[in-house]
């Protein structure tokens, strides 16, 4: 059997669009594999920084590194103990906080993408079971949800994050 060539080296990627600037805040995400997938997603979507808050595993955790496949070396990241304080600091610097959550007051992603796009968007994604910290939700400039047509009300947290990030990149 002949091994397939590695696609990461196939051709250089163009730089991400200058606007909007994107950052991601993972709030108490439990799974190291989800965090690794977030690094890969952030790299692909041109996210400039990944914030890992609360109990969220960080590199060099084996599961993060294994799933990230090197993206943890490319995407700048920072661990922070409290997501609410971090969000407050970033909002003071001009970042719009978009909370990814299935809350009753959430705006559907397609509807949100029809509105004027902020220059800087911080997308917060939360714990796989409990969701986002309620205090973080209260700070949000927008609560965004994905339309769901099946029996389940949500996707895996990083799958949903990918949809939002690429939605912003492609249609924002």
Summarize the structure.
The protein has 7 helices and 7 strands. With about 170 residues, it is α/β, with parallel strands linked by helices. Helix 1 (about 30-45) links the parallel strand 1 (about 20-25) and strand 2.
Task: Tell me what the structure shows.
The structure is a single chain. With 172 residues, the chain is an alpha/beta fold. Helix content is 35%, strand content 20%. It is built from seven helices and seven strands, in the order E-H-E-H-H-E-H-E-E-H-E-H-E-H. A seven-stranded parallel beta sheet has the order 3-2-1-6-4-7-5, with helices on both faces. Strand 1, helix 1 and strand 2 form a beta-alpha-beta unit. Helix 1 (32-45) packs parallel to helix 2 and helix 1 packs parallel to helix 7 (157-171). The N and C termini lie far apart (43 Å). The mean pLDDT is 93.
């Amino acid at each position: 059997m002949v091994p397939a060539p590695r696609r990461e080296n196939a051709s250089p990627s163009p730089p991400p669009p200058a606007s909007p600037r994107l950052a991601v805040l993972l709030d108490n995400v439990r799974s190291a594999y989800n965090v690794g997938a977030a690094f890969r997603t952030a790299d692909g979507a041109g996210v400039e920084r990944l914030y890992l808050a609360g109990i969220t595993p960080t590199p060099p955790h084996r599961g993060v590194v294994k799933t990230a496949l090197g993206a943890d070396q490319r995407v700048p990241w920072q661990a922070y103990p409290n997501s609410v304080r971090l969000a407050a600091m970033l909002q003071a610097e001009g970042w719009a906080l978009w909370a990814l959550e299935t809350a009753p007051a959430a705006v559907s992603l397609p509807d949100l993408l029809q509105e004027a796009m902020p220059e800087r968007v911080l997308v917060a994604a939360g714990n796989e079971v409990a969701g986002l910290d309620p205090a973080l939700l209260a700070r949000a400039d927008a609560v965004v949800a994905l339309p769901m047509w099946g029996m389940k009300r949500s996707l895996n947290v990083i799958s949903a994050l990918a949809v939002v990030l690429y939605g912003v990149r492609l249609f924002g």
